[in-house]
Fold this sequence. Notes:
about 300 residues; Immunoglobulin-like; 5-stranded mixed sheet; 6 helices; about 30% strand; BIG2 domain-containing protein
Amino acid sequence: MNSHIKIVLFFCLFIVGCKSERIFDDFSQPPTESKLYEISIKPKDIDIYFAKQIFAIGKYDDGTEVNITSSVIWDVSDEYIAVSDSSGYILPKNIGSTTVIASLDGIISENANINVVSSLVCGHDIGSEIITAIDDSDLNNSATSCLKIAKDNNGKWFTSTPSINILNLLGYVKADGANGTYKTYADLYHEDGTYGPYGDFGLFDQLGGDSLGNDGQYDRWCQNLAAIKFANRDNWRRGSQEELSQLFLDKGDMLNNYGWPSSKYNLYWSLTPTGLSFKTIRLYDGLIGMASTYASMYSSCISEF
C-alpha cells in the first residue's frame, strides 16, 4: 500500500516538475498573431473618366493575403485631379495624372497611378455621373472622340455609331470582319451635314462569326464596349430591330433631336435575321430595311440593367 502511494506521489511530482520546465508550453500558449508587412493596390494603373473602385491587398507574414480596402487610409497626391473616399472609391475631378497610396499600421503601399482622361461619353463632364450625359442633344459632338447615348422609355441605353476619332482612339483598323482581327471596322462614311453631323463615321459588317452574326464584326464592336466598361457598363450587345424601332418611336428623329449620324443609305444594323440577311433601321424616319452580312452599316449597341 505504501509503495503504491509513493508511485502516485512521484508521478504527480514528475508532472508538476515537467510543467515547471515548460515541457508542455507548446500546447498551452495561444498562437502568435500574423503581422502585415506589405500593401499592394489593384489595379496599379488606371485610366478613368467615371468613378472607379480600387482595392488594397494586405500581405501577412503567415502567407495570407487579405482585402483590407476599407481598413487602410487612402491618400491621393493631387486632389485637383481626383479624390478618394475611405473605401477606395476614386472620383475623377479634372483631366490629368496623379498617384494614390494606401497605409495601415505603419505600412505604406507603393504608388498607384491614376490618369483622368477625356470622357468617352458625349456630353459627359469629368466628375459628373454618367446619367447626366444620357440623351445629350448637342447636334455636332458625335463627330468627336466620344459616343452618344440615348435611353428609350424602358430604360435601355443605345449608342450612336462611332466616329473615326473614337475608332482611332480605341485602336481600330479598317478591314472586313472576316479577316479575324478583333478591332476592325468595315468602312467609313462621310456625313456632309445633311443626314448627320459633318464628319466621318464607322461602318461595320456582320462577318467573322456564325450565320446569326454572333462574334461578327458588329457583335465584336459591342463586345469591346463591354470589355472596356464603356459608360461604366459591361453588358453592351447588339440590338434587335424591334428594340431600335422602339428607340425611334420613343425619341423620334435621332438626327435632328440628338445629333446622331443617320445616313440615308447606311441604316443601323440589327441582330434580327430575315432570310440570309438582317433587318436594318434608319433612325431619322424609322424606315426598316434589310442587308446581307457583307454590307457595311452603322451600328448601335444596347445596355440594360
